[in-house]
Please model this.
Amino acid sequence: MELNRRTVIAGAAAAGIAATTLGGTAEAASGSSSGKGRKPVKELFGKLADGTKVYRWSLENGGTRLKVLSYGGIVQTLEIPDRRGRYENVVLGFDNIDDYVAKSPYFGALIGRYGNRIGKGQFTLDGKKYQLSVNDGVNHLHGGAKGFDKHVWDVEPFTKGSDVGLHLHYTSVDGEMGYPGTLKAKVTYTLNRRGEWRIDYEATTDKATVVNLTSHVYWNLAGEGSGTIEDHELYIAAHRYTPTDSGLIPTGELATVAGTPFDFRHAKAIGRDIRAGHPQQVQAKGFDHNWVLDKGITPRPEHVATLAEPRSGRTLKIATDQPGLQFYSGNFLDGTLTGTGGRTYRQGDALCLETQHFPDSPNHANFPSTVLRPGQTYRTSTVHSFDA
Ligand code: BGC
Model:
């Protein structure tokens, strides 16, 4: 893999392909000649209505380029080469802060305190009932009306050995969005010399609470705004998924994928079965489900999914320690949003692969627990590897 990446980068340099956004050459994109990544660069991106400044950080290492906003920890752009060394931004986003504030469906954002849905925004913990912010019909979605995606995070850049990255900090006060406990969250984005993007999440609390952090990147490996992802081939290492009710809340059942459109145990084009008419798909307008990863919770990230775009050759591999993966096929993109490249996003123009605990876990005793208690540290990691 490493050899392959280096070959691609060397090829790009030989072809004289220059970095479009950071002004360097493709060679420079692999970090300095000593193999060390360069220090992240900060610039002003915009201001919120109350005058708060939002910064954008540019990182590159091992042939991967990342732009991250202090608002929501949003990955605004992520550029990787195709098999001929041509770079493309492969994630959906906006070119200005106002659109992120006004209408983003969580493009590239950090999600907390709880990724995906909690039924009716209610749960009981240690005998006490909690009512969370309800922002998706009668349900709680992605942390509520003002989740982690809508806060400005403190960002601290670092270089460590050949790695470059950002530490992002946000403290969510007791009672925010209805959750108990002051939750101190720290997320670290690292780009290593192989161009892998790793996310390490950490959180502590001063009262028993629930937590489930994730990242909401919308992928299109052919390039942001280039059309449908139906040709992308997807593999998910899961023989079960969690079916939902009409509000996309899990019923509690762990259903087999065998003989259904939900079977991605062998890589297949996303478009192949997306119109198969399975009641679960009709209800969700496509794929919008949690896959129960066969490996379960693991001490370290393990490979669970591969996404490949045949024309460009770009491939994304995801490794995680988490028990679940939400595959969302961009069903609610409806042609009303125009992204970074000036093109309009329509249904199925990108997909999300969110590593997570199962949705609505606080209301399902048979799902792995998402409870965090004082004295414990919530820790989870996900690694994105790229190839072409
Ligand atoms: C959810 C979708 C939701 C989307 C928000 C996904 O993680 O599974 O149901 O509409 O986020 O854009």
